[in-house]
Specification:
alpha/beta; about 675 residues; Alpha-Beta Plaits; about 20% strand; five-stranded parallel beta sheet; binds flavin-adenine dinucleotide; FAD/NAD(P)-binding domain; 4 domains
Length: about 675
């Protein structure tokens, strides 16, 4: 394919703005006052390195039209199919006849269309939620799934266990109820369940460099996925006998079936990632040894595997199980025999999972004792509700003062009542014991779920990294690089126990950093985007429609088995639910990494630089190049333009291999 290119020689540019005016007039960009949030009307806009975006060219500035990416992200995101790529020239174009500005309501402020949709902004992996909902509403399911997979290699996992901040921040929630985004996500992901038909993305050029990933949870596997896509040789080292981290060893099958996890891990294996289980990294295999074997970077994603202890008297009695160890036993098919009365201490996801698992193992009376109130409970609302429906009692403001035993085995817990005082350093109200309120409750088993921490014995002395006061690895928050340049870390091991989607986001972030590190590029440049500027929707403009409810199996029936509780939505329900999306932004604007697509509020369509497609097909120059008073703009085939830059002996301001528009100084 011929790849066309524009070159702007900034040392010749005199800042007259003729190119910008010509561009605006030629393309009839009339509604310019509303075209950009900062009031700058043109897509051929001018940026200044120090001072942001300005309408007039200063000498140290450059124009920022469309890059015409080899794999444009805007193209698959359009539900209308309005964006295409010209096979001959590689020019990415928006068909104005087809583009409807993503369901634009005429009075909606154009500025809102250029802001980030809150669902995408609040998703740690920044999936183009609006884009895939738009596609799903039209029944374009494979296209919708491909869009999700660009940003997240675990769609089926996240479609089940993600704490869905996208829904929490969905603008539709201000009108009636948030769109049931996770349920749509799950439906789409499940279409790809079969190994024979699963989409495995292509691998870019194979590279000689090898990378070691330590830990096979969502953070480690995501990093491996993106590095393998870039062509690096990746080996994952896992201490446990199975791959998947907390996904396979912590979260029970009734919420996350094993075949679902295996399917998504299979796709990562298919990319050529080598996975070694039973390797306690830091013992026989160390950073020093792998450095000698020419491993060029390391990603530590070892999670938090060590269960914290309460420190209460009698904690060593038989029948008292640390939650994560209990869940590992359950998930490996060798659960301990449970008595009839089980107390679970804690208030997080693991506590709820332990309680629901104990019920499934035959415990008749299961209760959760939590030291704060229900409002402070970190477990997800849905999980709490489902646990209660299964007959699990949640008792708040209780703390186990001591465990009472008989012949070495627990037989009762002495609880003390708590009250909430002023907030502590975590911002939550501090629970303090109320003297004289102790009482004993007979139990057969106790499961303690009060948190986890990291075992850092995997970092041997040659690693020049440091551990923070809270037991996490010290890394740069943007690049995830540690103080030892070839060592990166992310996921729970860096944040403390959090969530699957945050671990996935960390794995992706680390992969970008490692790729840049191995290419000798700047690790920080253009990494941060302001996600606070999110779109608002007009509340009075919507079609009333009820939120789709995820069907759950009957509590009595489900609490006796580890079969999946949630049944999933039908295709019809998914299309209806996806259509409830208010399309806060434009799907293409959400997806463009360069921010070059703009929305014309007056006409209700999006537009971007198409290098004056019609003109160049009849042999004319793009209008900006033709009108430039100082011949600062050169247009032509990319290779010719590149050679011209080289002949000029100029500094190129953009990566020549990926972009069709160059800036030289
Ligand atoms: C019971 C439970 C339920 C949860 N439910 C949810 C939920 O519903 N939704 C949600 O979003 N989050 C949930 N979470 C949290 C979520 O699972 C974690 O935040 C996430 O898995 C962290 O990912 P990670 O990759 O950082 O670490 P992990 O998933 O913990 O993976 C780390 C891996 O590193 C391996 N490892 C450790 N040391 C070494 C070593 N020396 N050598 C080699 N390998 C090593 C470990 O064996 C492990 O496999 C839950 C957690 C638990 C425990």
């Amino acid at each position: 394919m011929k790849q066309l290119s524009l070159m702007i020689d900034l040392s010749r540019c005199i800042g007259c703005s003729t190119c910008i005016v010509a561009c605006r007039n030629y393309h009839e960009i009339i509604d310019h006052t509303r075209a950009m949030p900062n009031g700058i009307p043109y897509y051929l806009r001018v940026e200044n390195r120090e001072r942001g975006t300005y309408p007039n060219v200063a000498v140290d500035s450059w124009v920022m039209p469309c890059q015409h990416c080899p794999e444009p992200k805007c193209l698959p995101s359009c539900p209308e199919g309005a964006i295409g790529k010209d096979a001959q020239t590689g020019i990415v174009r928006i068909d104005r006849e087809v583009c409807n500005g993503c369901k634009t309501i005429p009075e909606t402020l154009a500025a809102e269309k250029t802001k980030a949709a809150p669902c995408m902004a609040h998703c740690p992996t920044h999936i183009n939620v609006q884009g895939y909902l738009g596609l799903a509403a039209k029944g374009k399911f494979p296209e919708a799934l491909a869009l999700i997979k660009e940003e997240n290699p675990f769609p089926a996992v996240c479609g089940r266990v993600c704490y869905h901040p996208c829904e929490t921040h969905c603008n539709r929630g201000e009108i009636d109820e948030a769109v049931s985004i996770r349920a749509v996500h799950r439906f789409l992901a499940d279409l790809d369940g079969k190994a024979e038909t699963r989409y495995v993305p292509p691998v870019r050029d194979r590279k000689a460099e090898k990378v070691a990933v330590i830990g096979s949870g969502p953070a480690g596997l995501t990093c491996a996925y993106y590095l393998a896509r870039e062509g690096y040789g990746v080996t994952v080292y896992e201490k446990a006998p199975v791959i998947g981290g907390m996904l396979t060893r912590g979260i029970p099958a009734y919420r996350l079936p094993r075949d679902v996890i295996e399917g998504e891990i299979g796709a990562i294996r298919d990319l050529g990632v080598e996975m070694k289980t039973g390797v306690d990294f830091g013992k026989k295999i160390t950073v020093a040894k792998l450095r000698k074997k020419r491993y060029r970077a390391f990603f530590f994603a070892v999670g938090t595997q060590v269960c914290k202890e309460l420190g209460s008297e009698g904690e060593g009695l038989k029948g008292i199980h640390p939650a994560y160890e209990f869940l590992i036993a359950v998930n490996s098919g060798k659960p301990p025999v449970m008595g009839k009365r089980v107390a679970v201490i804690g208030g997080g996801n693991a506590a709820i999972d332990a309680a629901r698992s104990a019920r499934r193992l035959g415990a008749e009376e299961v209760f959760i004792a939590y030291r704060r109130s229900l409002e402070e409970m970190p477990a997800g609302e849905e999980e709490i509700r489902e646990a209660e429906d299964e007959g699990i009692r949640i008792e708040t403001l209780l703390y186990p003062a001591r465990f009472i035993g008989e012949q070495g085995r627990v037989k009762a817990v002495e609880f003390i009542r708590m009250r909430l005082a002023e907030p502590d350093e975590s911002g939550r109200k501090k629970p303090v014991p109320v003297p004289g309120t102790e009482f004993a409750r007979p139990v057969d088993d106790v499961i303690v779920s009060i948190g986890q921490e990291t075992d850092w014995s995997c970092l041997t002395p040659e690693c020049a990294c440091t551990i923070t006061g809270t037991g996490t690895l010290r890394v740069d928050p943007v690049t995830l690089q540690s103080e030892d340049p070839d060592i990166f870390a992310g996921g729970d091991a860096v944040t403390g126990p959090r969530s699957v989607v945050e671990a996935i986001a960390a794995g992706k972030r680390a992969a970008v950093s490692i790729d840049r590190y191995l290419k000798g590029l700047d690790l920080r440049e253009n990494r941060e985007r302001d996600w606070t500027d999110t779109a608002k929707v007009q509340k009075e403009k919507y079609d009333p429609a009820k939120r789709a409810v995820m069907p759950l199996r009957n509590p009595k029936e489900r609490s006796g088995t580890f079969d999946e509780v949630a049944a999933g939505l039908s295709a019809e329900a998914v299309m209806g639910e996806a259509a409830r999306c208010q399309s806060c932004g434009c799907a293409c604007i959400q997806s463009c990494p360069y921010g070059v697509i703009q929305y014309d509020g007056g006409r209700g369509y999006s537009h971007k630089c198409d290098l004056c497609f019609e003109r160049i097909h009849v042999g004319d120059l793009p209008v900006c190049a033709e009108t430039c008073l100082t011949d600062a703009i050169t247009f032509g085939e990319k290779e010719l333009v590149r050679r011209k830059v080289e002949d000029m002996g100029k500094e190129v301001l953009k990566d020549l291999t990926r972009e069709s528009i160059l800036y030289v100084r």
